[in-house]
Amino acid sequence: TTILRALSGVSGIDRGHIVVDGRVSAMIALGAGFHPELTGRENVFLNGSILGLSRSEIRRYFDAILDFAGIGEYIDAPVKRYSSGMFARLGFAVAAQVQPDLLLVDEVLAVGDEAFQRKCLDKMREFKNSGVTMLFVSHHMPSVELICDRVIWLEDRTIRMAGLPNEVVKKYLARERSGDMGV
Q: Which of 75, 99, 132, 167 could bridge 40 with an S-S bond, Cβ 3.0-4.6 Å?
């Protein structure tokens, strides 16, 4: 999460430097920037502009955002009345409309029902298949195996292992089952 926050510009770094070339979209803390007193509709425009979409792009994508979020008539209710799942759905739906070169994804599948999680996975596969580079952080190993071509297991700021998803996940799960996580 710390790495994703630094890459997205949400957090600064105290050593080294980061160079990102291209349009970045971050699915970190979905809905960050939503104003609780504004409606979902108003927040789509606010959050979309924060993510770098123009007003005309947001208007063009609005129906797709509403359809993806699946919150129906609640789009015109203040988001302070939304459940955490509705909030995340709308945040993901807006972020998914950005056409990034680099997509940063942090545990977004931890919210929502199974159908919504499947929709999110499908959208991430769509990004991947279109050539978008994704940096996906998760503790959900089935998603890691499904989405990733290469996996890096970080532990205590050190690369513990890097390689093919099935190999790294197998070692990670074996270590987790042994109870020797070393953190």
A: 75
The answer to whether 109 and 27 have CB atoms below 8 angstroms apart is: no
Task: In whole angstroms, give the CA distance from residue 20 to residue 103.
Answer: 11
DSSP string, 87-132: HHHHHHHHHTTS--SEEEEESGGGSS-HHHHHHHHHHHHHHHHTT-
Whether the predicted pLDDT of 29 surpasses 70: no
Burial of 142 (0-12, 13-18, 19+ CB in 10 A): exposed
Cβ contact 78:41 at 8 Å:
no
Looking at residue 157, its amino acid is R
CA 165 to CA 150: how far, in whole Å? 6
pTM, entire model: 0.74
Distance separating alpha carbons of residues 126 and 118, to the nearest angstrom: 12
Place of tokens 């104003």: 35
